[in-house]
Each structure stands twice: as structure tokens, then as C-alpha cells.
Amino acid sequence: MVKAKTICVIVFGLMVITAGAATAHHSFSAVYDISRTVSVQGVVTEFRLVNPHALMLLDVADDSGKVSKWTVEFDGRLNLTEHGWNEHTIVVGERVTVTGNPTHVGAPRIFFRKLVRPDGTELIKGSEETLSEVERVRQERARQREQKQ
């Protein structure tokens, strides 16, 4: 009986410890500063619509021309696709301005809030504007495919 209680206590303790570790990567405020936003402009080198968080890599040049690689973190694939996003929502080679929450330590990394394209169109985190823009792009691509046939 004592052995069973001891095992239960150990198992429960391990569950408590691992539960904290399992949720640790979802702690936004541990990594990003919600009280600030920054904007960076650069060229998209990669966009991955994946879980647990979609990622975009952006080459950003400073005033001297030195290029640094920035990481833009997004919500997960499921959340983004519910708002109409797909693998082609952000295009490699496109020059964009991205606004987001910076890290606490000043790393070249932000959490996505808004993306502005050269033509002024915007993608905004989880909004109807995002869905409308994505749908407009889809319709345009469908029209182009029909013209080619």
C-alpha cells in the first residue's frame, strides 16, 4: 500500500513538472514584449505555414547596406488557415514591411501583427481584412488560370 502511494506521488509530481514544460513554448510574454511594436522592411526569403507557429525569414538591410536575417513568428497553421491563409499568402522575393512585437533581448525576431506590401495592401493578424485580401488574391489567380486555358 505504501509503495503504491509513493508511486502515485512520484507520477503526480512528474505530471506537474512536465505540464509546465509542455506549455512553456506557448508563453508569449516570456519571449516577446507586448508593450512595444517595431517595423522592419526587407525581402522575404522563406515562408513556412507550419505548426506550432508559422515562420517567415526576412533579409533586412541597415543604413550601411549590411543585411541581417530576421525571423517573423506567426500564429499556427490552423489559426492562419481559418482566416484564409495558405502557403502562397506571403511570396518569397517580395519586399514587405512587417510590424510586430520585438523580443525582450533585442534579437532580430518579431511576432507578427501586420504586413504591408509595396502596393499598400495589408495583411493583419486574424482580421477580416486578411481574409478579404487573401480571397482577392485567390480570385485573381483563378482568373489568370482561366485565361491561360
Could you characterize what this model shows?
It contains 4 helices and 6 strands, in the order H-H-E-E-E-H-E-E-E-H. With 149 residues, the protein is an alpha+beta fold. It has a single domain, classed as Nucleic acid-binding proteins (OB fold (Dihydrolipoamide Acetyltransferase, E2P)). A 5-stranded mixed β-barrel has the order 1-2-3-5-4. The chain starts with a helix and ends with a helix.
Q: Termini, distance in Å?
A: 76 Å
Helix content: 25-40%
**Main sheet summary:** 5 strands, mixed, barrel
Count of structural domains: 1
Contiguous runs where pLDDT drops below 50 for at least 5 residues = 13-25
* Annotated CATH topology: OB fold (Dihydrolipoamide Acetyltransferase, E2P)
Mean pLDDT: 81
Query: Helix count?
Result: 4
